[in-house]
Amino acid sequence: MASTTTNKIINKPLRAIPGTYGLPFFGPIKDRHDYFYHQGRDKFFLSKIQKYNSTVIRTNMPPGPFISSDPRVIALLDAVSFPILFDNSKVEKRNVLDGTFMPSTSFTGGYRVCAYLDTHEPAHAALKSFYISTIASRKQLFLPLFRNVVAECFTEIENKLSAKTATANLNDAVSSASFNFMFRLFCNNKDPAETNLGSEGPKLFDTWLLFQLAPLATLGLPKIFNYIEDFLIRTVPFPAFLAKSSYKKLYEAFSANAGKLIEEAEKAGIERSEAIHNIIFTAGFNAYGGLKNQFPTLMKWVGLGGEKLHKEIAAEVRSVVKEEGGITINGVERMSLVKSIVYEAMRIEPVVPYQYAKAREDIIVNSHDDSFQIKKGEMLFGYQPFATKDSRIFEKAEEFVARRFVGEEGERLLKYVVWSNGPETEQPGPENKQCPGKNLVILLCRVFLVEFFLRYDTFEFTYKDIVLGPNVTITSLTKASSTF
Q: Does the structure show a pLDDT above 70 at 386?
């Protein structure tokens, strides 16, 4: 039965949720093949919207048989229905981070880490509060530490551009920078190269992530190999022992070098081993995994904006930095164009496109035109790119509009920017599932642009969209013609 609060907002016709799951086993397999191979994810959802004339539909989501015991979901494909996924009084987030299946806890030392906990579980508040306090206590390190690793990143790119190949892969450079930043932030500014990790940190995390998330991806192989790939990576889950050696090195490195952080966790009542596994997950799955894809996505859209946009960014950056006497958090906050560009990149191509939750109770969910009753226990799935590119909310929704979020009118749209598992207008807390590093990620993206356009006037690039976002190759950099 719907709650009183929910009933108050029912002002649209109640409609049965359209769509079908098909025959057991065969229906999920068909949807999976359409999703990965025959249509692609956007066309997969768009075709169903058109077929059923609804943005709330029933469908199956990968990985399906045999990895997922129940692939059935109710898909929320617009900006009005999507936010129910953030209402933790009505939806449950227990073990749904990766959707309709959960990788073995053997990947995380036998613990269900915070990301897999529901907000009603007691351990969630303790761990989430620990994350938030950890980030807050290290805020003085953000700028100097990140500026240092970004400088190394740009030096690496310049060196590669001056070599015979005359191109530089941005993804490789930012992967190293992202790992170095997070490791230093959590490990008392210790250089990972001086630990047992050497230069292998990013590779170790990539290996660990690969075996957990492989069932949700496709390698983009020629069509002749599609069904072979599907059989190999979506028949049974990859066992954790395949990443055991990689994870062991990471555990040893964080255990040996994150002593201060581990002590803080123990003071908060979190057992040492559980704290280390949670720290590794946050540093690797959430922070490193997100940032290494966010920076190329950001630069893809800035690059597509062309030289005129680059000149506008450079002018704003250099003017504010000159007035501030250097790069400051206050100065970065004054850069309205830079701020808007970061939000717009996160709107048009969110790095994490999916959200899942289960209904705690019978609820009513609204779309733009209709209301739908969802039964307790049914799985909800939100496809974020359709929510953040909803043409009934955003003008020119499919276009990158650099100044979209400038001014009062633009700021009113920020509640529809939901990359962080919550609206941009709200803040992470122990009572919700919003990313604890939300504000830090926004700051780092802004500073990345600031540092870039202090050094360079413009750049040329190529890109290819792959499994987890664009693979960006820098082909030329034009050094700054003016300085502050």
A: yes
